[in-house]
Amino acid sequence: MKVALWKIAHARSGDKADRADIGLFAWDAPTYEVLKREVTKEKLAEHFRAICSGPVEVWPLENILAIKIVLNSALQGGAARSLRTDNLGKIVAAQLLRMEIEAPADLPRLQE
Amino acid sequence: MKTVRVGAGLGFYGDSWRSVRASIERGGVKYIGSDHLAELTLAILQKDRQKDPAAGYARDAVPMLTELWPLAAKRGVKFVLNAGGLNPEGAREAIAKAFHAKGWKAKIGVVTGDSVTGRIDELRAAGQALAHLDTGAAISSVQDRLLFANAYLGAQPIAEALAQGAQIVVTGRVADAALFLGPLAHEFGWRWDDWERLAQGLTVGHLLECSGQASGGNFGSAQEWEKIPDFLNLGYGIAEVSEDGTAVITKAPGTGGRVSFDTVRQQLLYEVHDPHAYYSPDVVLDMSTLKLEDEGNDRVKVTNAGGAARTDTLKIVAGYHDGWMGTGVIGYSWPDAYRKCEKSVDIIKGLIAERGLAVEETNVEYIGYNSLLGANADPTYRDQLNECFLRMTIRTQDKRVADGFGRLFPWLGLSGPPYLGGFHGIQRAKQLLGLWPTLVKRELIESGVQVSVETAG
């Protein structure tokens, strides 16, 4: 089934020069496996196509059940030359939590 | 085993030090590390210094220390702060003056040598290309527009200042985490090639460098953020560190917020690029081996950080002038609030074309609808909004165009769509800055680093 990430994960984002970076965190181990499989560079590039013109990088981290995501060329050259309200990319994580992925209905957070 | 507690100070220039009081009074900390310099803060300080050569440091350090020093001094708590910005000596003088007025004395250490603004030609002559780290572009393309250029120094000069007896250490640009790693290395006498301990210390610093972000502040989540108790009294992070580098992240008793596996791991990955190789001046950290154990009661144990040898280079971030931003904001109420904003965009664009204004880029946002979520805003209720604000920003090389842009909007109140309100005045041109990250050979910078400790007051 289609599930929005906010139902099964949490996330924080920030900036470094022209990069927006996001930590995406599964609430539990089964969800981590789903995130690792479903949150792909391709899906992310599509979800952020309006702001990110560079490559997307992804690192899964099993020790903290997390996916580290970096969006290159995503901040109009950097916070100090951006015309956007969210010049620091702090809201990029909220944008990510709106992304929908394929997930099994029996994930722990979906039972609550 | 000996343990030392270090506590988070500010996380940016202008942050609150209310919560630092609890860490000093009840948190058992021996050091406060306070980060006043975001990537673009030096640009703000550069503007200050252009107006007044004695300025160029983060001014909030003076009232912060004036309020907290009496509490800190009687407990032997020391401060390490990068509030020196572009003028660490100026920061020391300002602190000394304030302390003198109070009749206080303190040994203040100053670390200088990070600024390379005036050394670009010299570094290039020494064989440093200083090409843009991401794009590979040549520095010559921006060199005549540079406003500042600073290398990120590490923890060693901070430890040196503490070894010389400094009670307050003021630096310019240093790696944020070095504000904490410096005191830890000093306290435990860690060797500067003990990569595993340095990696643990760096992890601690990274977790504490953003004031409340390890203890429940900005806990990025839907609904769960509301379970964080007592934001009003949110305690800043404290780390209890052992000689072997083992650390427990916690906060002062009786404070709000929460320290848990979830709040700590959110901060761990914050503003990190490759988590297998988090570069700092002192060590390269691998986060993939780290173990975070939630012990309950706002305690999270941190062990097993992977450390690899530091590199031969330091990072420089320079800022250069890159045009001007003009801004216009107006609001409309129901009915048709969004559509009236859209119509206004057409009108403003018509004015730009009619006047032939040299606008390179236009950014349109609808506050109340998509100014924060952008293309991922949900359009379901877009046409039923109670109210909507239009925010238009432009990029131009001409300061006059940026200054005048806001003046295009007021006439819409009488001659445009109905029910316009919320006009908040004409915003002036804002200077835009490009950031230039690059690398430089370490010894070219470190040979110029100086540590001086003097009694002030």
What does this structure look like?
The complex is a heterodimer of chains A (112) and B (457). Chain A is α+β, with helices and mostly antiparallel strands. Chain A is built from three helices and six strands. Chain A has helices at 29-38, 41-47, 92-97; strands spanning 2-4, 9-16, 19-26, 56-61, 66-71, 100-102. In chain A, the strands form two sheets. Chain A has a four-stranded antiparallel sheet. In chain A, a hairpin with a 2-residue loop joins strand 2 and strand 3. Chain A starts with a strand and ends in a 10-residue tail after the last strand. Chain B has two domains: 3-114 and 152-311, no CATH class; 323-434, Alpha-Beta Plaits (2-Layer Sandwich). In chain B, the strands form three sheets. In chain B, strands 11-12-8-7-1-2-3-6-4-19 form a ten-stranded mixed sheet, sandwiched between helices. In chain B, a hairpin with a 4-residue loop joins strand 9 and strand 10 (284-286). The two termini of chain B are 36 Å apart. The interface between A and B is large, with 47 and 55 residues.
Instruction: State the low-pLDDT regions of chain A, or none.
Output: none
Order of helices and strands of chain A: EEEHHEEHE
Total helix count of chain A? 3
Portion of residues within helices of chain A: 10-25%
**Percent range for helical residues of chain B?**
25-40%
Shape annotation of chain B: globular
Largest beta sheet: strand ordering of chain B? 11-12-8-7-1-2-3-6-4-19
The two chains with the largest interface, and their residue counts, are: A-B, 47 and 55 residues
Mean pLDDT of chain B: 97
For the biggest sheet of chain A, the summary is:
4 strands, antiparallel
**Kindly state the mean pLDDT of chain A as a whole number?**
97
| Termini separation of chain A | 17 Å
